[in-house]
Amino acid sequence: MKLRSYSDVCDLVRSRPAGHAITVLGPTATGKTRLAVRLARDFNAEIVSADSRQVYRGMDIGTGKDLSDYVIDGQQIPYHLIDVAEPGEEYNVAQYQRAAYQVIDEIRGRGREVLICGGSGMYVAALLGGYRLSPIERDERLWVDLQSKSDEELTEMLRSFRPLHNHTDTCERERLLKAVEIESYYATHPEWKELVHEVPSVIIGLCGDRDGIRERITARLRQRLDEGMIEEVDALVKKGVSTRQLLKYGLEYKFVTMYLLGEITREEMFAKLNTAIHQFSKRQMTWFRKMERDGFVIHWIDIEDLKNN
Length: 309
Hints:
single chain; alpha/beta; Rossmann fold; Helix Hairpins; two-stranded antiparallel ribbon; 13 helices
């Protein structure tokens, strides 16, 4: 379904089944937060961020938190899962999923609507799809025992844990072994099995002309540099965050760190980072299209159609 205006978005949200959340997603620089905040105001919602880097405190300019955007017409819109980890920590999608389910239950307990907003496709899909993502700890004795079994025996073990709706997990021995290992883990760790559940949601996707988005990305990068993005990364290093970890965060933190280490010039930093963000935007859209192929229904609206309404 192609949406043409904010009014269309509101009509879609009003018509969603009872109990469904609202999700706003899209590639970087498309204005997801602004749309989410507007919807949150109009539908009495609280926002659950789905951004893999905005979870870190002190990483503000580079991740585009723009916390002032969560105030609309003088009203502060509640937001969650921003600034919940220290920079340098490992914070993965499994931790995010677990925290998000708890936050969603709390929001609904207050009688408010849930609005998920972000561009980290894996985080969005894991939350909406209810994927099991706990860190599996290998039981070596179990693994050796499983390897001694035939494919038929392993298939029967897997069937004892859950119905086999398709042949995905049984078509290859390695996948079959892994599936049985995972189900065995959940059998002895019921807290994860009870936790994971789907979050039904109407999904609104922001899209736009590729050249237009490229221009927005470049303009926003210049603005972030003017606002002190280099100084932000330098401050993180001085606080003890390792340059190795900052490089792992990618994009802004990777290339600014390379500049601070003297590995590239400022001009090279800008050019390389600008190109990397453009490529990241394309990968985001690839992920969202994959979500559609996997059965998620995304209702797209062009960012130009939101400008004047």
